[in-house]
Amino acid sequence: MSDLEELRKAIVKFTQERDWDQFHNGKDLALALSIEAAELNEAFLWKEVSEVNLEKVKEELADVFNYAILIADKYDLDIRQIVLDKIKRNAEKYPVEKAYGNAKKYNEL
Amino acid sequence: MSDLEELRKAIVKFTQERDWDQFHNGKDLALALSIEAAELNEAFLWKEVSEVNLEKVKEELADVFNYAILIADKYDLDIRQIVLDKIKRNAEKYPVEKAYGNAKKYNEL
Amino acid sequence: MSDLEELRKAIVKFTQERDWDQFHNGKDLALALSIEAAELNEAFLWKEVSEVNLEKVKEELADVFNYAILIADKYDLDIRQIVLDKIKRNAEKYPVEKAYGNAKKYNEL
Amino acid sequence: MSDLEELRKAIVKFTQERDWDQFHNGKDLALALSIEAAELNEAFLWKEVSEVNLEKVKEELADVFNYAILIADKYDLDIRQIVLDKIKRNAEKYPVEKAYGNAKKYNEL
Predict the structure, then answer these.
(1) pLDDT tens column, A5-58
(2) Which among B35, B39, B47, B64 is the top mutation candidate for probing chain D, defined by the most D β-carbons within 10 Å of its own β-carbon?
(3) What CA–CA distance (Å, rounded) separates A93 from A79?
(4) Does the pLDDT value for residue B107 go beyond 90?
(5) Rounded CA gap, B34 and C31, in Å?
(6) C96 vs D contacts (CB less than 8 Å)
C-alpha cells in the first residue's frame, strides 16, 4: 500500500470511529485547513526564521496534511496525480529560462 | 519509492531547476501555504458546498500539498511519521466515547 | 478627534508602553492579522451560521481591527481615505446593472 | 458623523445597491475577510519587508476593513467599543512590567 493511501485510511478510520463525517463537508474542511495553516504560521510570528519552534511546526504541519488528505478523500482526488499535474502546469507557467533565480520575477512572471 | 518520496523529489527538482531555494525559508513557505489555503477557500466563498468549483479545488489543493511537502523537506520531517504521531495524540485527546457524533462537543471537548 | 484616530492612538500607546514596536514590521503585522482572521473563522467552524459564538466573534474581530489599524499606522495610511477609494474602484468594477443580485456572477463578473 | 459610521454607511449602501446582502452571512463574511488578509500577506511574500508593494498593501488593507466593518454591521457590534474593550483586556493579560520589550515573552507570557 502506498504511504498516501496508508495515511488516508488512518485518517478516515479516525474520523469514522468518532462519527465526524457529518461535520466534514468540503467547505468546513477547507476552513479547518486554513485555520491549521494559520497556526503553523504562528510558529514563525514575530521571529527570525531561525528562532522557529520546531515542535509546533511538526504538530501544525501534521494538522495541515490531515485536512488536506480529508479534502482529497471527500472529492475522490488522487493526491499523487493532482500534484504531478500541477507541477507540469507550473513548469509551463514558469519556464526555467525566464524564472531562474530572480526574486523579483518569481512573483510577477 | 513511496508516493510521498516521489512527490518530494519532483517538487524539489522543480525548485532547484529554477534556483528558488534561496526564497524558500520556512517562514515564507508557511506564508505561501496559507495563501494557497485561502485560494482553496475561495472555491467555496458565497456558495453552498454543492456549488463548489471542483477544478479550482484540485488546483489549489495541489498547491497546498506542494508547499506542505516543501516545508517538510526544509525541516527534514518524515510526513508519514508526523501524521501518524498526530493521529495517535488526537486519539488520546478525543477518545471515542466522549467525541462520538456530537457537533457541540467536537470543538470544545 | 475622529473615532479611527482615537483607536489608533490607544493602540499605538498600548504598543509603545510595552516596547513592542521592534517586533511590528509590516510583514509580521500582516501575518498577525491573518492569524486573527483565522481565529475569527474558528467561531464558525463545523457550525451553521446561526450557531456562532458571538463572544468569540467580538474578541477576534477586535483583534483584526487592532492589527489592521497598526498596519495603517505603520505605512501612514489614512484608513477613511483608502476605504472610500476602494469603494469607488469597486463601484466601477461591479456596476449595479451587471452585479445586481446574482450569486453566480458575484464572483466572476 | 463619526469616521467609522461614515464608512459603515458607505459600505452598506454599496452592498444594498447590488442586493448582495443575501450572500453576506457571517460565516462567508469571515471567510472573505481571511481571503483578503491572505492577499495582503501576498504583498510581503518572498520579500524583505522593505521591498513591499505599497499599492497592494493599500488595496488589500482596504478590503480587510471593508469585510471587518460588514461583520461588525451584521452583528450590530460597536467597533470603537469592542476595540477599546479588547485593549483593556490585553492590558491585564500583558502587564507592562512583564511584557516590556521581550520578544521571547511577547508570545508566551
Answers:
(1) 999 999 999 999 999 999 999 999 999 999 999 999 999 999 999 999 999 999
(2) B35
(3) 21
(4) no
(5) 10
(6) 17-18
Write out pLDDT tens, residues B34-80.
999 999 999 999 999 999 999 999 999 999 999 999 999 999 999 99
**Residues on C contacting B at a C-beta cutoff of 8 Å:** 31, 34, 45-47, 103, 106-107
Residue C104: the pLDDT is 55
pLDDT score of A108 more than 70: no
Q: What percent of chain C has pLDDT over 70?
A: 94
Half-sphere exposure of A87 (CA within 13 A, CB side): 22
Report, as an integer, the average pLDDT of D49-57.
95
| Separation in Å, CA A65 to CA A8, A38, A40, A73, C57 | 10, 13, 12, 12, 27
For the stretch A87-96, contacts whose Cβ atoms lie closer than 8 Å and that sit 24 or more positions apart, written own/partner, are: A87/B10, A87/B11, A87/B14, A87/B66, A90/B14, A91/B14, A94/B18, A96/B17, A96/B18
Mutate to test the interface with A, among C31, C36, C52 (most CBs of A within 10 A): C31
Interface contact flag, A19 B90, Cβ < 8 Å: no
CA separation (Å) from D79 to A2, C47, D67, D84?
A: 52, 25, 13, 9
The C-alpha of D61 sits at a distance from chain C's nearest C-alpha, in angstroms, of 7
Mean pLDDT of C63-74: 98
**DSSP letter (8 states) at residue C23:** G
| Residue range C8-21: mean pLDDT, rounded | 96
CB contact under 8 A, C101 and D49: no
Whether A10 sits inside 8 A of B86 (CB atoms) is: no
Residue A95: is its pLDDT beyond 70?
yes
Searching chain A, which residue's CA lies closest to the CA of residue D52?
A104
Planar angle of CA B44, A27, B97, nearest 5 degrees: 175
Q: Which has the minimum average pLDDT: A73-87, B94-108, C19-33, D42-56? A: B94-108
Nearest CB to B26; choose among A7, A14, A52: A52
What pLDDT is attached to residue D84? 98
Say which DSSP state D1 is in: -
SS3 D16: helix
Does residue C105 surpass a pLDDT of 60?
no
Angle between helices D3-17 and C79-93 (to 10 degrees): 10
